[in-house]
Please model this.
Amino acid sequence: MDFLAGNREKAIAFLQSEDVDASRNAHTLGIDFYSGFTLKGQVRKYFYFGKYLDPNYRQRMKKAMAIWTEKDPLTRTFLSPRKFWSASTDNCDTWVDCRNTDNLKAMREVAVYLFAEETGNEETRKIYKERIHRNVRTLYQIGQGEWDSENYLGHAVTTYVNLYDFALDPEVKSLAKSALDWFFTEGALKYWRGGFGGSSKRDYSQGNCIWCSLATHELGLYFGDSPMADPKPDADEVHLITSSYRPPKAIVALAHKEFKKPLELLNSKPTYENWKPGGDAAPQFYETLYFGNTFQLGTLAQGSGGDWNGFKMMAFNTKRGVDYLIAATGT
Model:
């Protein structure tokens, strides 16, 4: 973001400074390709800002990528697991983040694919192309386990724009567009006037106000339609600002609720880790999503519980955009 604001020398100096975990990554020449979130940043740093990096540093990154993707990094191991944070129980002994939430899995697979493609490691590229194809196919067949998340929908979007912007294989670029169109359609149903509402999975209860959720920060760049400007844009928006992807006009119209109301949608939502071999493909959640002339309401048949919010209503507010009403029996 600092680079885009015109502070180029300062920003580039930061981008090519030694990674915080460089000492743990001697096997990849000190370049950190471990955590999913780090990977997402490394992709755009190399492919988008790379022409501004020092040629020696950029070449070092490419050599590290070649080493890292010579074989599937998910099959290569260290002697001991690595912690992601002090209380983490999701430790991995693999060369890449092994965690399999929908968003972290996508970050891993997109990064490995792009770096394998860049360095000509064709066997690894084909493995990850098939994994990406399977994930996108699943979106259209049954949906996403982290459905309508006020937080993780944003991470899905910024991950797949990397694939859309930088994949050379036209089929993979098409898969990326298909995924983005799906995510933006999902977001358009729940976005309204700078708010993000309705029932949701993996809801941290941080997005129950205008411009509060990561999903609204990012969807709002494309959908707007709010009387208030976003007061605190998220830094992750750098991926979207520098991307050439744009959602189709029909999706924007859906976000603006340009259809005849009242309207009721009956939606099914899948189990969380539905992609696992032998996993349950049957729906776990059943949602009624109702659009009135002055409000929209999402409810689940089973109510709220665990990490899902089963009742959230947004009502039209002239000054604020929308007001929120949350119904729950706990905190």
Summary: Residues 8-259 form one domain. The longest helix spans residues 170-190.
